[in-house]
TrEMBL record:
Keywords: Membrane, Transmembrane, Transmembrane helix. InterPro entries: S04_transporter_CS, SLC26A/SulP_dom, SLC26A/SulP_fam. The chain crosses the membrane at residues 110-129, 135-151, 163-182. This is Sulfate transporter 3.1. It is found in: Membrane. The gene is SULTR3:1_2. It is a multi-pass membrane protein. Residues 1-23 are annotated as: Disordered. Residues 83-185 form the SLC26A/SulP transporter domain. Residues 1-16 have a biased composition (Polar residues).
Amino acid sequence: MGNVDYSSYPSPMNNEGEQHPRVAVPPPQPFFKSLKYSLKETFFPDDPLRRFKNQPPSRRLILGLQYFFPIFEWGPNYTFQFLKSDLIAGITIASLAIPQGISYAKLANLPPILGLYSSFIPPLIYAMMGSSRDLAVGTVAVGSLLLGSMLSTEVNPTQNPKLFLHLAFTATFFAGIFQASLGLF
């Protein structure tokens, strides 16, 4: 912003008076080839499909199952020591997640048994389909409050509990479909 002294920048000449080699500018690419490369780099930066190239169909099936269900990849190497550690971690998390799930169900004006399901089912599914070893999944207070307040504006949970429950199931079903599609894409 203002006066810049360009004399402090190195010149293209080195100390012996020779010019530094210059990098050639790549030739311009056709628009669609450039767009294809940009989209591929944006959506698949690590090229998750490279493992499938030059593989026989039976191996591709196994790799596909391992891609969508990582339990098939790490399951054969699972040891008794891992099981002991996972049981201790599961008991620890359950002691917190079960009462938390019940209270979050009450925040959303839903039956407490649904809080138990939300404490047990998501981690079970994530254990089979998730890729991180250090992640906890389950309900959160903000989501429960948001769902309860959103549905309460449409249906009174005390006057029509069956419709309220059906709307809650529908809302969570579509949220799950949306989240699963984002996970796939």
